[in-house]
Each structure stands twice: as structure tokens, then as C-alpha cells.
User: What shape does this take?
Amino acid sequence: MGRIYVLGIGPGDIDMMTIRAKKILDECDIIVGYKAYTELIRDHFRDKEFFENGMRGEMDRCEKCVELAREGRTVGLICSGDAGVYGMASPLMEVAEREGFSDIEVIPGVTAALSGSAVLGAPLSNDFCVISLSDLLTPWEVIEKRLRAAADGDFAVAIYNPSSKGRPQHLKRACDILMEKLPGDRPCGYVRNIGRSGCAKKICTLAELVHEETDMFVTVFIGNSRTKVWGDRLVTPRGYIL
Amino acid sequence: MGRIYVLGIGPGDIDMMTIRAKKILDECDIIVGYKAYTELIRDHFRDKEFFENGMRGEMDRCEKCVELAREGRTVGLICSGDAGVYGMASPLMEVAEREGFSDIEVIPGVTAALSGSAVLGAPLSNDFCVISLSDLLTPWEVIEKRLRAAADGDFAVAIYNPSSKGRPQHLKRACDILMEKLPGDRPCGYVRNIGRSGCAKKICTLAELVHEETDMFVTVFIGNSRTKVWGDRLVTPRGYIL
Assistant: This one.
């Protein structure tokens, strides 16, 4: 019986993977993943076998992993960012629970909240929330409740999946909800294509964010009540000096 | 004029650093950090110069980095976990803002919310909060407000610094606050010494967590309303099957 490693590869560039993730992928018999992510790393694992499929193929990917492991193979299931945060660790464990398979090891990686923060400065230096605006698996009412709770708690917030072709207005709707409780001049920012070619950042206010064009490749950051803009950086001071 | 890299080295084991962090430290003239963290990596950088100091020496460390960079040196300021999340990126930027120094690059790393989740299973697969129970820089009333907001928003929660010698009751107080809104049988877990020798995990309920002994080397996880215990794993299903 083989083992399944579920690995977060970070934002995209092979160097943003942990050393451990790279070593494990080097040892795997087969690498499984969504094809947009396998393409990011394929050149570094040229002698490997790959199994890849498209968006919404998560269940097929997990079932394939269990099938391959039961054939005795060592499987590396990759996700962008972290393995856990909106990643494949949870769906794999759903399938594994149903199939009675348990030899799984999770290898964490740098999620976009961290890699995007690093590009912007240090917006998430203190307590923060991560909220996805995708309502494919989470009802929109729950997302709204979480946005309001994040504002009530004065959390800095990292927003994943701010909008997509199917839901172009989600970020705007989220900003409107946040502005019921937060000032329009609250410092915010976003990063596109973190750690990939075309990486770009912008710092703006919450009121301005409403009008920004975003997509699935953008991570948005909402400051807390202490967040400042210093030069081209978004920083939440922890209170040592400022 | 030199540059300051502020790098998250992950939970402790050198292999949990990103490849990029390792490459940058290899190129730095001097590595600066809290001595408990420099000790974790010193053997891998034997020919390097180190500047290290003790707990609460954050400001001295940041000032030293700016001074060294102004002498033309390339400086690697390390933190455990991520560079941003309760890390040195923010205090360094406070000092740099005051000193008019700006050549800083932030290299993210795997924070304990991610590395601890990987040990437990996949508790943070959906929207989550990260809250520190240290009231050194954040008033306890703000921490209480955030705990209540996290419960209201049905967030999974990663709790950092659950207790210490100076505040042995903080985790108990936090659990009591959460139990005003959450059921006592809510699945929870914690991990001690993530990625280091002596790494250990425990899964328990929120009511049981009140009685657990924790310290600064423990990260605690509170499930959301969907979180399950499957075998020895804590998993928040995203809703594909279960």
C-alpha cells in the first residue's frame, strides 16, 4: 500500500515551495493536480509521471490518488498555496474517510494570505481572518455573516477569490457590507499573480476597492483600525513604536 | 547601502523553510534573530556571522538591521513561522519608517496555523481566523472582542500564544468566552513543538480544552460548526461529499 502526500506548493515559483515539499515530490512515483498548477512545476520534475485534470475535478483527483496509493504507489497531490487552506487536504480526507484509506501526510505551504502580505508590506502582522468570496461550497449568507464578524472584531482580512466570471460583483458586494461598519478610507491593497510573472500590487482605500477589477488570481487585503500606508507599503503596526 | 531581508523560516526544521529563504540566507552577510530561532538553523549556516538577542529584544534587533544595512551589508532577519504573522516584518517597518530606510524585502514562511493544521488534519480548510492570546501589545478587551466575533462568524480559529508563565489562565478564559456562543462538544485540537523534536498533537472538545496545559510552544485549533473528528484527524469538510 502506498502513501498519499498532499502538498502546498506556495504561490507558483518553485523556489516558494518548502525544501521538504521539493524533496517529497522528487521521491513520489506520480504527481497529481489541477493542470494550471502542474504546469507551474512540470519543468522541475521532467522524469515524473503526472495525472492532471481541470477545474472542478477535485473529487476525481482525490479518488485517483486513493486508487494509485492502493496499487502501491507513492502519490504527491499538489495544491497552490497551502495544502489545507481552500486546498486539497480536506477533500482528500473526505474521500479517504469514505474509502477507508488513511496513509496521508499533509505538507503545508505558503498560502496567498502570507505571500500576498509579503508583497504589500505587513498587513497581517496581528490577528486576522481569511475569507473566500466563492459561494460554490459556502452559502453567500454565511460569507456575509463572516464579513460582518470580521469587521466587528477589527480583524485585518485577506480575501480569496474576490471575483470571477460567474460572480463579477462579489468583491463590490463584500466592500459594501464592510463599509456598513468600517470607514471608506480604511487602507486596503491587493496583489495579482503573486510569485508569478505579471505580479502586481496596488494600495487603495476600501471605498476605492469597490471600483477595482479583480479576478481569481487576485488576493485582497483589508486593513484593521491600526493599518497604515507608509510609502508603497501597507503595514499594520503591532504597537512597538507607532 | 545594503538590503534587509525579513524571512519566515517556518516551524523550525530547516526543511520547512522555502527554497528561496534558504538561498537568500546563503547569500546574506549576517543573520539576525531571537536566539531561540537562530539556534534552530545555525548548524546549516556555519560560516555565517550571527547577531542574536533575547526575548523582547525586537526593537534592538530591528535597529541593528538598519545599522548593518547602512554599512552596506546584506542582512537576513529571521522569524519563526511567517515573516508577517506576529513576525518581524511589521516592527522592522516601524523602525525603518522612523529611520527613513526602505530597502526591505519580505520572504514569507509557513506560519503555525498552517503547519499545525497539517499535523492535525485539515481544520482550516475553509474561512478561518488567527488570534493571539498574548496581551503584551493588544489589550485583553480587544482579544475578547475578537474571540466573540470569531464565534459569531462561525470561523475555525487558530490560537497562538495560548498561555505562558505570566498568563497561565488565558486559554481557559478564551475557552470560557467561546463557550458563551459555541457548544462544549465542538471539536478542537492542539499541537506542541510543531516541526521540532517533541512534536505532539491532541484532539479534544472545547469543554475539555479548558483543562489542558499549554504554553508558548502550543498552537490551538477550534473547529467551526462543520468540523469533524475522523480517526486521529481534525477535518473541516468543505462540502464536496460530507
In short: Chain A touches chain B through 76 residues (CB under 8 Å). The mean pLDDT of chain A is 96. DSSP finds eight helices and 13 strands in chain A. The two ends of chain A are 56 Å apart (CA to CA).
